[in-house]
Amino acid sequence: MLPRAAIGGSAPRDKPSGGGCALTVNDVLTVHGGTPLHGRIRVRGAKNLVSKAMVAALLGDAPSRLYDVPRIRDVEVVRGLLELHGVRVTDGTEDGELVFDPANVESATTDEINVHAGSSRIPILLCGPLLHRLGHAFIPDLGGCHIGPRPIDFHIQALRQFGAVVDKGPDGMHLTAPTGLHGTKLELPYPSVGATEQVLLTAVMAEGVTELRNAAVEPEIIDLICVLQKMGAIIKVHTDRVIEIQGVPRLGGYTHRPIPDRIEAASWAAAALATGGDIEVLGAEQVDMMTFLNVFRSVGGAYEVTDMRPPRNGSPGQEGKIRFWHPGDELKAVALETDVHPGFMTDWQQPLVVALTQARGLSIVHETVYEQRLGYTQALNSMGATIQVYRDCLGGTPCRFGRRDFKHSAVIAGPSKLHAADLVIPDLRAGFSHLIAALAAEGTSRVYGVDLIDRGYEDFEAKLAALGAHAERA
Ligand code: EPU
Fold first, then answer.
1. Is the distance from the beta carbon of residue 152 to the nearest atom of ligand 1 less than 6 Å?
2. Is residue 408 lining ligand 1, measured as CB closer than 6 Å?
3. Which positions are annotated as binding phosphoenolpyruvate (predicted)?
């Protein structure tokens, strides 16, 4: 059955189209809300590091080993692309361990590669590694979440500066490097995560030195630098967002345990707050979540950090974790701006806004990373929330989007009693916020398009069950 109202996205289609955030008619979750979530779940390696570390394995001339890889769709897509290019990918002995053997890297046909068209944004990061290994690359049309235009101009400009010839065709992007790839000086117009990764993955084996200014320095990027360093790369991270890379002629393999997924951890924290619950997130680490924790506490949430302790002198070790809970007092309105690291992550915004609908007063959210990442608030309004979106920059600092007339600021008036609705998931993070809203609302909601959540949240249905949520397919 189709939703009574296609709220927060277009009506379901019977097969995916237009990217990793497409809908199918059968992926419906019926959620009986109003029960606080209680219990314990675990987060694994960060989606936004794991997929990049997998791409890095292509650069080595020896096998690489990655632990704690979550079973999510983005990982499957990158695995498929690596295998198409001759990388042997096998499961290791530990749950979540993958081994990549790049001994026989080979070309794939455009038809084979196009099977992955529209499924993820990661393929763009294969440019540098494939140029180094094969001298040419074909990149299919990208996918990823529909959260604005998501241009790739910084990537193309950087690749051209390294010496790549980039031809954009109707089927995708063809690249060659007739005179090889050479170190260069670059300055990004904005500290883009993907473009910084593009530069790193290309510069490590380019001839000479690359200097990147205005680089992104998210923890996932620093972790990617650790991966590349283990492979033999020489990368210096200077102050003021400057990264210097000394190209080397060959790289080996790596063995790496990624940083935990701080977006997933914050999503469960927001779920605890919005439903009046108490969730222990095993694997979550304080250091990469400091900005989130400050906001969580300002809203009135409580948390307790337990540091990881390695086994020592015969005593067993202890896994790190953070317990997040609603202490029972009224939640407080806050003003926040999303920003690049160390600011408040744009991906933390959507789950937290659901909790802000329960806070007394007017909360203000200024989204400064993506121009169209507040569309999902319509769905929350259909459930009883009072959220107005504005074109003005309602934060302390004017951002790129104020001048360009995008609705990128929100005012959330609370507290609002949420009631059940039929919802259509528009993208990954907004999708999780829809799910939280359905869990917090009184009554039975139907959430369409939940398969999108599999892109970035491992086993989310099993985790919901472990937390006492009442939800079932269809
Ligand atoms: N931008 C350009 N031109 C470019 C590249 C980026 O104008 O060539 C702009 C974007 O339009 C955006 C801003 O720069 O306004 C930041 O984009 P960025 O390149 O940093 O984002 P990304 O690399 O495409 C990654 C994550 C996103 C996360 C952002 C910001 C992955 C696979 N994706 O995207 O995560 O929101 O960084 O931290 O790492 C998610 O996990 O759901 C997700 C969307």
1. yes
2. no
3. 47-48
39, two tokens? 């219990």
Residue 121 beta carbon below 6 angstroms from any ligand 1 atom: yes
Whether 157 shows a pLDDT value over 60: the answer reads: yes
Across the range 207-225, mean pLDDT stands at 98
| Ligand 1: nearest atom to the Cα of 429 | 42
417 CA → ligand 1 middle, Å: 33
Residue 194 CA to ligand 1 centre (angstroms)? 6
| pTM given for the model | 0.94
Separation of CA 429 and ligand 1 centre (Å): 13
The CA distance from 385 to 412, in Å, is: 8
Annotated binding residue at 261?
no
**Rounded CA gap, 147 and 375, in Å?**
9
Distance from the alpha carbon of residue 215 to the mean position of ligand 1, in angstroms: 13
Each residue's pLDDT tens digit, 250-263: 999 999 999 999 99
Taking each helix axis from N to C end, the angle separating 193-203 and 219-231, rounded to the nearest 10 degrees, works out to: 10
Active site residues: 145
427 C-beta neighbours (distance < 10 Å), count = 26
Which tops the pLDDT comparison, 364 or 117?
364
pLDDT recorded at residue 304: 98
The residues, ordered by sequence, that sit 6+ positions from 151 with a Cβ below 8 Å of its Cβ are: none
Ligand 1: nearest atom to the Cα of 145: 44
47 is known to lie in a ligand binding site: yes
| The predicted structure's pLDDT at residue 93 | 97
Confidence band of 3 (pLDDT split at 50, 70, 90): very low
Find the helix or strand (DSSP H, E) in which 437 lies.
helix 428-440
The response to whether residue 423 sits with its C-beta less than 6 Å from ligand 1 reads: no
Which residue CA neighbors atom 24 of ligand 1 most closely?
194
| Residue 149 in this model has a pLDDT that exceeds 80 | no
Give the separation between CA 64 and CA 226, rounded to whole angstroms. Answer: 13
Nearest alpha-carbon partner for 363 in 378, 373, 374, 353: 353
Kindly report, residue by residue over 355-391, the tens digit of the pLDDT: 999 999 999 999 999 999 999 999 999 999 999 999 9
Using the mean position of ligand 1's atoms as its centre, give its distance from the Cα of residue 193 in Å: 6
Q: What does the block give as tokens for 330?
A: 């009224």
Name the residue among 414, 370, 368, 352 with its Cα closest to residue 388.
Answer: 414
Q: What is the mean pLDDT of residues 155-177?
A: 94
CA distances from 364 to 78, 268, 389 (A): 37, 21, 10
Buried/exposed code over 375-388 (b: 16+ C-beta within 10 A; e: otherwise): bbbebbbbbbbebe
What pLDDT score does 156 carry?
Answer: 96
- The residue type found at 457 is Y
Give yes or no for residue 77 CB within 6 A of ligand 1: no
pLDDT tens readout for residues 9-20: 433 433 333 334
